[in-house]
Amino acid sequence: MLRRQDVGHRVVVRRIVGVSQERTLYSDALGELVELTETDLTLATAKGTLRVPLDEVHRAKRVPVARRPPAADVVALELAANDAWPAPIQSHLGGWILRAAGNWTGRANSALAVGDPDRTLEAAIDGVVEWYEAHGQQPLINAPMPLAAPVNAALDARGWTARPLTLVQTASVVALLTAIPANADLPPVELADSPGDDWYEMVTEHKGALPPIAVRILTAVPEVVFAHVRDTDGSLLAVARGAVTGPDRWLGISLLQTAPAARRRGIAQQVVRGLAQWATQRGSNRAYLQVEERNTAAVALYGRVGFGTHHTYLTREAPAN
Prior knowledge:
Elements: E1 10-20, E2 23-36, E3 40-45, E4 48-53, E5 57-62, H1 71-84, E6 89-93, E7 96-100, E8 111-112, H2 121-134, E9 140-145, H3 149-157, E10 161-162, E11 166-172, H4 173-179, E12 189-192, H5 197-207, H6 212-219, E13 224-230, E14 236-245, E15 250-258, H7 267-280, E16 286-292, H8 296-304, E17 308-317
Parallel strand pairs: 8-9, 15-16
Antiparallel strand pairs: 1-2, 1-5, 2-3, 3-4, 6-7, 9-17, 10-17, 11-16, 11-17, 12-13, 13-14, 14-15
């Protein structure tokens, strides 16, 4: 049977659903255990939240996390992430998406190598190089792993270098809300349809100067929200951006920043909670974020609230001519 320490982990539950011809009928549910009380357990499943009374549970146990997500799941999440960070210039090379945004951020200025490019791999890489050179930009390819392992191998042979490994981490929205209780002792999380000037200023401190094209990317998504946390004097303590995109209604969390003097107070977690609450109102069940593996402090923060690595990607750079 499950215990408190199983909360936050993937479990399978066999539930008694009835009796037919003197035989007990069962139904199995697989998902993340987000709550366990003396009377019920709650799962975050692929179809949504499921509450099961304990007196209906025949058997339940923790199961290992799947080692490798299905390729279709990686593609769907990458496409949702592309919609949440929309480069103003996009073109298709078969299933690959070529993106340009004046060199602001790698994800908006790289070819997303998912799907079939409708030509040989070598011809596809040549096509990427030609397209970016025509746009006056360095050729970059975003290669999700392990899906794009053949792409990475081909780029290795051509001498393309790799930027730091990025983790694409996911969590159920219900699990986030369970793991992060509301804290009335902290300033509230304010959500706005558009960012204020000080929101941009805090992001600039982390990302550098924001060109007009950056503002366009950040605000172009139909379902987007900007989080602010202010001190009693009105000064900004933390910011973040949330966007819901894709057929699966993924919540993408990005640009989570906390002022140095406000760190280690749980403010960043409250921002994540605020975005999760906003997303549930829009039918979102799953959240994702992208973080460099070497950013150990951020990886630890996200792990504490329930994020785990779904897959990874490398941004590959063509050698200089």
